[in-house]
């Protein structure tokens, strides 16, 4: 009887502890899942916020380099020479233009000149940024 009793107690305890273990682990799995779900839900907001932050940082990080402006705005015409655009670092294309003096060349680039659009379509470029792009386009001449 004593033996039976302790066996009974043990198995009850065993069942209870098994149940307890299962329910605890189920609870923690559920907890993990909801944490994941929450992370999933707030992720786009987080990303958006970070993206907004970094573009704000880009804008406020000073003037773009000549290469950055060129690669984004000027390359469309000045790499292949579309509509007679002087090609990048092509001395024959640039000699006569540079002979006008940089002031005139810059003025043409900022205000537009025949098929050359004002500021080469970089409407928010400063004169300094346009100048940097011109320098980049003519650096090997
Ligand atoms: C839509 C095409 C196009 C884009 C984009 C463009 N250009 Fe031009 N650019 C031209 C053409 C065409 C000419 C030649 C105009 C002419 O001499 O009749 C030219 C000429 C120039 C000249 C020579 C001006 C002169 O006095 O002879 C400069 C400098 C220049 N571009 C700078 C730039 C810069 C800097 C950018 C980018 C910020 C840029 N361009 C983007 C088409 C373009």
From TrEMBL:
Gene3D superfamilies: Cytochrome c-like domain. Residues 1-26 form the signal peptide. Keywords: Electron transport, Heme, Iron, Metal-binding, Signal, Transport. The keyword Heme applies. SUPFAM superfamilies: Cytochrome c. Residues 61-141 form the Cytochrome c domain. PROSITE patterns: CYTC (PS51007). GO terms for molecular function: electron transfer activity; heme binding; iron ion binding. It holds the Pfam family Cytochrome_CBB3. PANTHER family: CYTOCHROME C5 (PTHR40942:SF4), PTHR40942. This is Cytochrome C. It comes from Idiomarina zobellii.
